[in-house]
Amino acid sequence: MPEIVDSRDSATLEEDHQVISPWEVSSKHGGKIDYDKVIDRFGFQRIDETLVERVERLTGRPAHAFLRRGIFFAHRDFDKILDAYERGEKFYLYTGIGPSSEALHLGHLVPFMFAKYLQDAFKVPLVIQLSDDEKCMWNNLSVEESKRLARENAKDIIACGFEKTRTFIFSNFSYLGGVFYENIVRFRTCVTANKAVETFGFGGEDHMGKITFPPIQAVPSFPSSFPHLFSGKDNLSCLIPCAIDQDPYFKMARDVAPSLGYQKPALIESSFFPDLQGETGKMSASDPISAIYVTDSAKEIKTKVNKYAFSGGQDSIENHRKYGANLEEYGAGRMLTGEVKKRLIEVLSGLVERHRKARAAVTDEMVDEFMAVRPLPHMFD
Ligand code: TRP
């Protein structure tokens, strides 16, 4: 029997007026999220310049802007993945999305854009979980609607440019079974109800669906959950690019892994894509004015940025010229809010337009191909 994990260290963060959990991200009293505190409390390792340079050296290409700019700022054992890679050992990538809306917003794209870079730079396979079961339970969607949204989201994901020869996308409703399910059951027996409550804040009134969900997100970090891909490679390491609110699932996976005889998954974790109103939370699919969607037109983007985007600028031109704000040219008072917003609108409209074109080219057949349970013989080439 695997050993039961019941270490009482909570991974969610509710002190310091910040709440960061898989379901809520907020900072009270209008303050910014303090990422230094997050690092301390979650026990992350920090991604520093040395690590970024090491990635550049090992991959022979410039680091992604999200790494250079500190968007991906924290990790767990990413250095060990690099040590192994240097010795010639490969790994696989795992990330996912809970399909809660028809179209993705820019915050959703961050882990996928980054996973695409990691996949290309390290030449490794990627598995993508569409947790349609999760959103069905949390957002009160019907099973049918969740499955439909999952396929729609898969199109946006494919539009990020992933290679079919190295990428497997799966929906929980379709894929749950076989060794994947066996691992879920093994995992469940390793975690007490106390531990689940403490980690995720479940209450007695939460239904069993919610309480039994976390193992389903955790076990794709074990290679044996994908026998068609990694059969005989039970020691393959897993690297998970994700936003820090997903950390509790994988902290738990790391706690459980040794008792099931698996490697602990490594993580590379990002800060949140701020909502348009400031830096106190994250873009939310259910709050249209907090987010820019990949389906927004250039005109909508312009209106949202001009009307709703918090800039940090001063309340009058005079004060702005005198005190400045928080960006270089802008901070020094040389650029005005309108000029900064104009530049932002250009950048975002360009990105959204490129995405729109790529998504229009994704067919239902392509979705079926990416989601087919199949071996990927060239995934490490
Ligand atoms: N729980 C995530 C969400 O709400 C979706 C998800 C499933 C995920 N598996 C993942 C995110 C793996 C990151 C990595 O969107």
UniProtKB/TrEMBL annotation:
Cellular component GO terms, alphabetical: cytoplasm
Recorded superkingdom: Eukaryota
Keyword Cytoplasm: yes
Primary localization: cytoplasm
Annotated localization: Cytoplasm
Assigned EC number: 6.1.1.2
Keyword Transmembrane on entry: no
GO molecular-function term, one example from the UniProt record: tryptophan-tRNA ligase activity
Top-level enzyme category: ligase
Keywords (A to Z) from UniProt: Aminoacyl-tRNA synthetase, ATP-binding, Cytoplasm, Ligase, Nucleotide-binding, Protein biosynthesis
Xref: InterPro entries: aa-tRNA-synth_I_CS, aa-tRNA-synth_Ic, Rossmann-like_a/b/a_fold, Trp-tRNA-ligase
BP-aspect Gene Ontology terms: post-embryonic development; reproductive structure development; tryptophanyl-tRNA aminoacylation
Family: Belongs to the class-I aminoacyl-tRNA synthetase family.
Protein name in UniProt: Tryptophan--tRNA ligase, cytoplasmic
